[in-house]
Amino acid sequence: MTPTRPARPLIALALLATLTLAAQARTAPAHAPVLAALPGQIQPGQIQPVAPGTRAAPDLPTLTLTPTLPYVHTVNVLGNGFVTVAHAILTLNAAQHPQARALAETAVQRVFAARPDLTEVDVSVYDAGTYGGFGGPLPLLTASVPRARLNDFQTWAAGRGAYERTWVNPGPAGTTARPADRVRETTPTLTTDPAAPLTAQNRARLRDTTAQVAGGEHGGLLYRARRGTTDLAALTFDDAPHPLFEPLLLDLLRRSGAHATFFVIGRNAQAYPYFVRDMAAQGHEVGNHTYHHVRLPPLSPAAVQDELQSTDALLRDLTGRPVRYFRPPGGEYTPATLQAARDAGLTTVFWTDDPGDFQNPGDTVLERRYRAHLHAGGIVLLHDNAPQMLDVLRDFLRYARQEGVALTTVGGLPK
């Protein structure tokens, strides 16, 4: 009998994995840095990015009400080429808290009156004494008010009915509060414990390399679709939902027929639950991006479990569906992080194509990058609250169609 010979592609894969493993062993950091948000600094999610080494995000257009409302902090206005949306931020002193609904209703009416072209006004009402931006303490209440639903919102604000596109803060969340980290994604990073046996470290790195090279899911890791995928790529957005960008982003995806996976920050989902429900209702996939948007390698196993499980429970309640996918902030993980995700029934998802919208390189640079890197079987990383993402997304969706690449969810990829 002729002995069976291994296929050449498998030999090449093993050789490449070995070489990559050796390189990782030389260069892997001993530990992941903790980049805590600085006091008074804009937190992740308000106007991305805040990570070091990036260009400043362009200022968002603002609307000034005349005459002014003293409790209206800012009104941002943004469009996607089809519809225009405003987000009003209100800051109330303690004496105004009981009137929060009525004051929000007045502000929404005034914003609509000032801009007749608006399709929707979203409002976030904060306590003035503790307001710390989008990543600071949660709002007192939020609402999403499409122009066609203004009467329903006014009825709710007057206490005479229900309105499902609102959220009223019930008090502290059940998860331990943690400050959000400043994050700059470069490449996914595996950090192993230098005190662990060398065999365990090598096994973890080999699993990571195999997932990158072979494609498909390996040991709970997914970097790209299974090799041989010809016409599909996954479109993913981190840090969702954001009250100014989400309706614009969902509108563009609806018009293009593309579907995406949104990696959702739990605290954002808590404050803006109606946008998470919109994602699911429109056929998108909702994934876990931790509750507080924190780097996981420095945390204890119990803290990592808390971040994942609290977000999973919230997203299941909002969508009625199990959560299948998880992406660690910054792309940083350890073998313990991966195990915690597996224990929660989650596959850890990274990416192949990152045009760097988080770094605000400019529209021309972003367009050049995604045209160079988009390919079948890949996973595209974008951020739902990066202004330049919204600038180029319409062209990106058109370009993908021209190239014959259908953009789908992570769950839609062959694995």
From TrEMBL:
GO biological process, one term: carbohydrate metabolic process
GO cellular component: membrane
Biased composition (Low complexity): 186-195
CDD domains hit by this protein: CE4_NodB_like_3
PROSITE patterns the UniProt entry points to: NODB
A single GO molecular function term of this UniProt record: hydrolase activity, acting on carbon-nitrogen (but not peptide) bonds
Signal peptide: 1-25
InterPro entries in alphabetical order: Glyco_hydro/deAcase_b/a-brl (IPR011330), NODB_dom (IPR002509), Polysacc_deacetylase_ArnD (IPR050248)
Keyword list, A-Z: Hydrolase, Metal-binding, Signal
Protein name as it appears in the record: Polysaccharide deacetylase familiy protein
Taxonomic lineage from the root: Bacteria, Thermotogati, Deinococcota, Deinococci, Deinococcales
